[in-house]
UniProtKB/TrEMBL annotation:
Subcellular location: Cell junction, Tight junction; Cell membrane
Keyword Protein transport recorded: no
Assigned protein family: Belongs to the claudin family.
Reactions catalysed, as given in the entry: Cs(+)(in) = Cs(+)(out); Na(+)(in) = Na(+)(out); Mg(2+)(in) = Mg(2+)(out); Li(+)(in) = Li(+)(out)
Annotated GO biological process: monoatomic ion transport; paracellular transport
Species, as recorded: Peucedramus taeniatus (Olive warbler)
Pfam families to which the protein is assigned, alphabetical: PMP22_Claudin
InterPro entries reported for this sequence: Claudin, Claudin16, Claudin_CS, PMP22/EMP/MP20/Claudin
Job description of the protein: Claudins function as major constituents of the tight junction complexes that regulate the permeability of epithelia.
The gene coding this protein: Cldn16_0
Name this polypeptide is given: Claudin
Any GO CC annotation of this UniProt entry: plasma membrane
Membrane topology of this protein: Multi-pass membrane protein
Lineage: Eukaryota, Metazoa, Chordata, Craniata, Vertebrata
Transmembrane portions of the chain: 7-27, 120-142, 169-192
Length: 239
């Protein structure tokens, strides 16, 4: 039981931070950052939804939102948005399911097998969340790197060049955390399935035993009452 609690708490903290990292990564503005910051007086960051410029000297930040979501955007931007939002939803719901499956939460306290299945479902959802998260963040980073390398290879200088920033790294970290927590909940928690199933069946057998004993006691007293009634009926008939 102690090992089971430990695995649940480790999976809980991993799922919490992984979901938080994915959500923060999706809605922050530094997926791309200018690579020539030593020559610039400002830091330029591009996110999935807006672009921000921060002055190096006074720290004043100015952000410009992109056009409407229905406007034409690059395939990289649209697909990364879709994959990261999917990862956010799956990791969020996986974390909520995990909270309900914790033994310390008073939800279905007499059904350990059901709570264990809830933890397994949470693990599967976290594993699924890690797939679009890692795909979107790594693909975005590789695309930025390939674009920058091709410009350098052809000696093309557009005034500013980008490298992937901390939001992209945060997306990768959150996705890897989802894989770790999901693997922990699906693989390790599965080992406790037999224990929880045994407790469930033993409790059911105990209740069934009590029910059978009550039935036997009732049946033991039933013939004597029937015999007494028969004797009274025989006496009344003779009279």
């Amino acid at each position: 039981a102690g090992m089971k609690f430990f695995l649940q708490y480790v999976g809980f903290f991993l799922a919490f931070f992984s979901a938080a990292f994915l959500i923060i990564s999706t809605w922050t503005d530094c997926w791309m950052v200018n690579a020539d910051d030593s020559l610039e007086v400002s830091t330029k960051c591009r996110g999935l939804w807006w672009e921000c410029v921060t002055n190096v000297f006074d720290g004043i930040q100015t952000c410009d939102e992109y056009d409407s979501i229905y406007a034409e955007h690059s395939v990289k931007l649209v697909l990364t948005r879709a994959m990261m939002i999917t990862a956010d939803l799956l990791s969020g719901f996986g974390f909520l399911f995990l909270v309900l499956g914790l033994d310390c939460v008073k939800f279905l306290p007499d059904e350990p097998l059901i709570k264990l299945r809830i933890c397994l479902v949470s693990g599967v959802m976290l594993l699924l969340a890690g797939l679009p998260g890692i795909t979107g963040s790594v693909w975005y980073a590789v695309d930025v790197y390939v674009e920058r390398s091709s410009l350098l290879f052809h000696n093309v200088f557009l005034g500013i060049q980008y490298k992937f920033g901390w939001s992209c790294w945060l997306g990768m970290a959150g996705s890897l955390g989802c894989f770790l927590s999901g693997s922990l909940l699906t693989c390790c928690m599965y080992l406790f399935r037999e224990t929880s199933s045994g407790r469930f069946h033993s409790a059911y057998s105990l209740r069934k035993g009590y029910s059978s004993a009550a039935t036997v006691v009732t049946n033991v007293h039933l013939p004597s009452s029937q015999t007494a009634t028969s004797k009274m009926y025989a006496v009344d008939t003779r009279v």
